[in-house]
Amino acid sequence: MTKNSIKYTVNQIFKIANPNSSLKFIICFDEGKNEITINFNESDKKIIFKLSYAEDWYDLTGKNINEIKFINDPKNKYKIPVLFWRNKGLPFIERISDNEIIFDGDIISSSFFMLSRWEEKVIKERDVHGRFIYENSAAYKYNFIDMPIVDEYAMVLRSYLQILFADLDLGKNKFHIKLSHDIDDIRRFNNIKYTFRTLGGDILKGKSVSLFRRSLKEWGKSYKNIEKDPYFLGIYELAKISKQYNMDSAFYFKTSAKSSYDTGYIINDSVKRCIYNLQDQGFEIGFHAGYYTFQNYERLKEEKEILDEVLCFKYYGGRQHYLRFDVDTTLKYWERVGFKYDSTLSYAEYEGFRCGTCHPFKPFDIDEDRELNLIEIPLIAMDGTLKVYRKLTPDEGLKSIIYLMNKCKEAEGVFTLLWHNTSIYRGWENWMDEVYIKSLNYNQELFII
Q1: How many alpha carbons fall within 13 Å on the CB side of residue 448?
Q2: What are the tens digits of pLDDT across the range 168-222?
Q3: What is the pLDDT of residues 318-357, one digit of tens each?
């Protein structure tokens, strides 16, 4: 780790461990000993973190599954994996006194490994969409995708800081949910060919005359007025539900040209009316970058400029289509174009904590050895992940969401849920009622408990 990456990681962990910023500290790095000392201002108290060595990082990303050690959470309810451990013959805390704590379990390197997505630079294999494969991740190999381990380390650190500074209020972060909706398409009935294919599917695959009749009626309304199309109406339905549950929602619109993976809808007057209506209701409008932008700066810039003109401002956030992400380019391009935040980082194949955190954070560019001027709001769960990729039942999908929601609450972070406007009708009705709505009901209960 470099001095910049060490400073970056320590600051990220302390933001979670000490939200009040009541502790002021200086970071000292001893290269000879390969350890960090945190000296606290106006105090003789200090914390020492012993760092692991470079070969340990490559061992973790190799094909073999190595032994990793675990520690108890502060309440002794479950075990937390520590990816790196300076000397596995020593305990997690090598020494503790009234003035000094020495960590041999290396939560600094473990945190940077997750936040920086270092493994995605080392492991080159990708899926058909150019995405890093979940099954190649350490989270898969060591089974901790459902645990925000960076946040867990911060909570452990907080417990030890409280020992050193018993009379100091370190503070707590406020848990909340961020709903987001990628507007991949605004028309279920795009053209005659697609319409006949859809209607035919209702009869041949769905074997439902009633569904066929309903679709035919919907097509008639959509043909006369795009704003009556089920997908278009789905946008307003999601907004209505958010208002009903007093929730904030972000709607991410596309401006990409038509391609094999982009529907290519145009932000015409109907879409503009929808956007302005959502803004009038207080909803956030953001950007859903086209399929071919994640490694293409010029294309990303061109698409953003179209939405800039519609919104009449340039500083907003969004997400990549298909969750396409390249650790070498994507976030760097988002910073350069001038976005406020990105919310792409989750695995399409599996819900959970790809970055090891549910707290918004600024990513670190390993090649340039610097923190990016961009916020990452990690995506925790997506409708398509649960139903399409994982093929869960609605009951299983709801249980997963509730479990992850509770983990985010315990970590005092943000539970980010993506639900598409196309995931309301035609096979999604049960998921809307039994998963999405019940998730929002459960969220309300969380603030009562």
Answers
A1: 5
A2: 999 999 999 999 999 999 887 565 555 545 555 555 555 555 555 555 555 455 5
A3: 999 999 999 999 999 999 999 999 999 999 999 999 999 9
Q: From the centroid of its chain, how far is CA 420?
A: 15
Give the DSSP per-residue string, 334-400. HHHHT-SEE---S-SSS-S-TTS-SS-B--EETTTTEE-SSEE----EEHHIIIIIS---HHHHHHH
Partner residues linked to 182 by β-bridges:
252
Q: The pTM is what?
A: 0.92
Q: Please give the average per-residue pLDDT across 370-380, as a whole number.
A: 98
Long-range contacts of 212-218 (CB under 8 A, 24+ apart): 215/426, 218/188, 218/189
Query: Which residues pair with residue 365 across a beta bridge?
Result: 370
Going by pLDDT thresholds of 50, 70 and 90, the confidence category of residue 449 is: very low
Whether 383 and 420 have beta carbons less than 8 Å apart is answered as: yes
Residue 94 banded pLDDT, cuts 50, 70, 90: confident
Calpha distance 188→20 (Å, rounded) = 48
Return the number of other C-beta atoms located less than 10 Å from residue 171's C-beta: 13
> H or E stretch including 69?
strand 69-72
Side by side, the strands of the sheet bearing 25-30 are 25-30, 35-40, 46-50, 100-103, 93-96
SS3 category, 203: helix
Residues in the chain: 449
C-alpha dihedral sign at 420, 319, 359, 111: positive
Integer-rounded Cα radius of gyration of the chain: 24
Residue 427's contacts (CB-CB under 8 Å, 6 or more residues apart) are none
CA distances from 275 to 255, 319, 395, 423 (A): 13, 17, 33, 19
User: For position 97, what pLDDT does the model report?
Assistant: 83
Q: What was the pLDDT predicted at 447?
A: 59
Can you spell out the DSSP letters for 411-443?
TT-EEEEE--TTSSSSS-HHHIIIIIIHHHHHH
Q: Which residues pair with 355 in a beta bridge?
A: none
State how far the alpha carbon of 145 is from the alpha carbons of 107, 150, 180, 220, 416, in Å.
Answer: 17, 12, 21, 45, 15
The dihedrals phi and psi of 420, each to the nearest 5 degrees, come to -75, 155
* Helix 394-410 vs helix 438-446: crossing angle, to nearest 10: 30
Average pLDDT, the chain: 91
The angle that helices 230-244 and 209-224 make with each other, rounded to 10 degrees, is: 90
Q: At residue 223, does pLDDT exceed 50? A: no
